[in-house]
Amino acid sequence: QVQLVESGGGSVQAGGSLRLSCVASGATVYMAWFRQAPGKEREGVAAINVISETSLYSNSVKGRFTISRASTENSINLQMSNLNPGDTAMYYCAASTDWVSVALAESSYNYWGQGTQVTVSS
User: Fold this and answer.
1) Do the Cβ atoms of 55 and 65 come closer than 8 Å?
2) Of 59, 71, 91, 120, which one's alpha carbon is 20 to 30 angstroms from that of 82?
3) 30-36 and 43-49 as β-strands: parallel, antiparallel, unpaired?
4) Can you tell me the distance from the alpha carbon of 101 to that of 37, in angstroms, rounded to the nearest whole number?
C-alpha cells in the first residue's frame, strides 16, 4: 500500500513563498495537492501525471503555484509563491495507482497523506 509523507508547511507573511513536498512509498501514476480551510469544502489545487508530467491547476492558484515531479516518479513538490491569506488551509497530498487521467476530483485518488498546515498572515 502506498504511504504519503508531506513536509514544508508552516507560517509565512503575505507575499511570501513556501515549498511543499510529498514522498510516496510506492509507485504511483497520478499525484495531487488538495487543501481545506475551516468551514470550507476540500479544494483540488494541482495535479500531475508523474510519468508524462502533464499538470492541472485550479483557477485560484494558477500562475502562483507550480506542481512538479521530483527526480523519482513517486515524489512531487508544490512551489507556492505570492501567498495570500486565502491560501491558509490544511494541504493534503494524494496519489492514485490507477491509470485514468489527471484530475482535481477527490474520487480520483485512493491514497492520502495526513496533511500539512499552511498559514499566511496579512
Assistant:
1) no
2) 71
3) antiparallel
4) 26
